[in-house]
């Protein structure tokens, strides 16, 4: 059965298109929900007017989104989190934390759903994160994940212990090398 779409439906098409669907789907869902109509001349004219208004509204919305994206594009954020001595976070930093950090920076229009991350951040480091506002409007931000005060102290202590251990190991290796060379000299005499 052919129907005229009154709104965009991702699996079928866009507003104003005439598409072929199963009769039951049209009768039981699309037409009662006012998502589609029978393609008569009057309905086609009506939907064309709706489509023109929709496209006008879409252009305005895209302009607003581009202005918002320009505000946050290139911004750098610092998020503090608890971490162990090796820099692994207790928990993770996800889209909600990034959106909250942006809200603190007066970018309250960014929501967690706009943050496009393949997986949550689980280590201290610098990350490039993309914000996807929809309608092909994106912005890139830099997120620094830093340790909180207690974690920073633990990391510094761990680094100091490692440095001591490496220095002791190097001194021991030097002593062994000196002892071996002295033993070789005594054997050579």
Describe the structure concisely:
The longest helix has 40 residues, at 149-188. This protein has four helices and nine strands.
Radius of gyration: 31 Å
List low-pLDDT spans: none
Shape type: elongated
**Contiguous helical run count:** 4
Specify the CATH architecture of the largest domain: Roll
Structural class: alpha+beta
- The CATH class of the largest domain is identified as Alpha Beta
Spatial arrangement of strands, main beta sheet: 4-9-8-6
CATH H-tier superfamily of the largest domain: Ribosomal protein L9, C-terminal domain
End-to-end separation in angstroms reads 105 Å
Overall number of structural domains? 2
- What's the pLDDT, averaged over the residues? 91
- Portion in beta strands: 15-25%
Q: Could you tell me the number of beta strands?
A: 9
**What is the string of SSEs from the N terminus onward?**
EEHEHEEHEEEEH
- Give helix % range: 40-55%
Write a structural description.
The chain has 189 residues and is an alpha+beta fold. It has two domains: 2-63, Ribosomal protein L9, N-terminal domain (Ribosomal Protein L9, domain 1, 3-Layer(aba) Sandwich); 73-147, Ribosomal Protein L9, domain 2, CATH 3.10.430.100. 48% of the residues lie in helices and 25% in strands. The chain is built from four helices and nine strands. The strands form three sheets. Strands 4-9-8-6 form a four-stranded mixed beta sheet. It has a three-stranded antiparallel beta sheet with strand order 2-1-3, sandwiched between helices. A hairpin with a 2-residue loop joins strand 8 (125-134) and strand 9.
């Amino acid at each position: 059965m052919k129907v005229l779409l009154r709104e965009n439906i991702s699996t079928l098409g866009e507003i104003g298109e005439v598409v072929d669907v199963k009769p039951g789907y049209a009768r039981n869902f699309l037409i009662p929900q006012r998502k589609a109509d029978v393609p008569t001349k009057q309905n086609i004219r009506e939907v064309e007017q709706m489509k023109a208004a929709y496209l006008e509204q879409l252009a305005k919305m895209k302009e607003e989104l581009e202005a918002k994206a320009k505000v946050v594009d290139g911004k750098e954020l610092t998020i503090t989190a608890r971490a162990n001595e090796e820099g692994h976070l207790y928990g993770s930093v996800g889209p909600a934390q990034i959106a909250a950090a942006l809200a603190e920076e007066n970018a309250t229009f960014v929501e967690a759903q706009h943050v496009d991350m393949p997986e949550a951040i689980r280590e201290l480091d610098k990350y490039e994160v993309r914000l996807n506002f929809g309608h092909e409007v994106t912005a890139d931000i830099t997120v620094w994940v830093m340790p909180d005060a207690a974690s920073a102290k633990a990391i510094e202590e761990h680094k100091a212990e490692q440095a001591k251990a490496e220095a002791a190991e190097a001194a021991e290796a030097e002593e062994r090398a000196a002892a071996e060379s002295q033993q070789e000299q005594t054997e050579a005499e």
